[in-house]
Amino acid sequence: MPKVHFTSPLGDADADVPAGKTLLEAAEACGAPVGHSCGGACACSTCHVYVRRGLDSLGDQDDLELDRLDMAFDVRPISRLACQAKLGAADVDVAISEESLKAYMDENPDQRRALEAAGRWPPKRAVAT
Ligand code: FES
Fold first, then answer.
1. In what order do the strands lie in the sheet with 79-81?
2. Is the peptide bond before 9 cis (omega within 30 degrees of 0)?
3. Considering only CA atoms, which of 89, 95, 104, 112 is closest in space to residue 6?
4. Which stretches in the chain have pLDDT values below 70?
5. Which of 10, 3, 41 is nearest to 124 (CA)?
6. Would you state the pLDDT for residue 124?
7. Between β-strands 92-96 and 3-8, what pairing exists: parallel, antiparallel or unpaired?
8. pLDDT over 70, % of the chain
9. Ligand 1 pocket member 46 (CB < 6 A)
10. What domains can you pick out in the chain, each with its CATH number?
11. What phi and psi values does residue 49 have, to the nearest 5 degrees?
């Protein structure tokens, strides 16, 4: 079972999920703050992540994912949409993009307010990639 390690300015999270699950399902399993405004229908780009290790083990990108990634900010060769990227057998390291983290906070205002009250939102450092 592959391990997925998520990194964001708010901290790290780890998930063990079966091969064939998406990075978004892995994020939901461990509470990693990956935004997903369209609910995983490949109709936005708020689940944009950077795959720093294990990129080649993920399922291929189709034309729809590539078209949606064109809508994202700061797209890089290691960019994927978490709702479309299916895990293979290898472990994967993922950095959550700034746009995805902001979308997650928009989708979870109670969590954002708690982080604001604690002085942890907005984050002081950018996404490490
Ligand atoms: Fe909208 Fe992935 S959640 S494209």
1. 11-16, 3-8, 92-96, 48-53, 79-81
2. no
3. 95
4. 126-129
5. 10
6. 84
7. parallel
8. 97
9. yes
10. 3-117 (3.10.20.30)
11. -135, 165
Do residues 49 and 22 make contact, with C-beta atoms less than 8 angstroms apart?
A: no
For the chain, what's the residue count? 129
pLDDT computed for residue 129 by the predictor: 57
| 3-state class (DSSP) for residue 107 | helix
Separation CA 37–CA 22 (nearest Å): 16
Note the pLDDT of residue 125: 75
List residues bridging with 94 in a β-sheet. 6, 51
Of 46, 65, 80, the one to substitute when testing ligand 1's pocket (max ligand atoms within 8 A of C-beta) is 46
Cβ–ligand 1 contact at 49 (below 6 Å) = no
What whole-number distance in Å separates Cα of residue 110 and Cα of residue 1?
33
Name the 3-class secondary structure at 110.
Answer: helix
Which has the closest alpha carbon to 88: 40, 37, 21?
21
Span from the CA of 48 to the centroid of ligand 1 (angstroms): 8
Q: End-to-end distance of the chain based on CA atoms, in angstroms?
A: 25
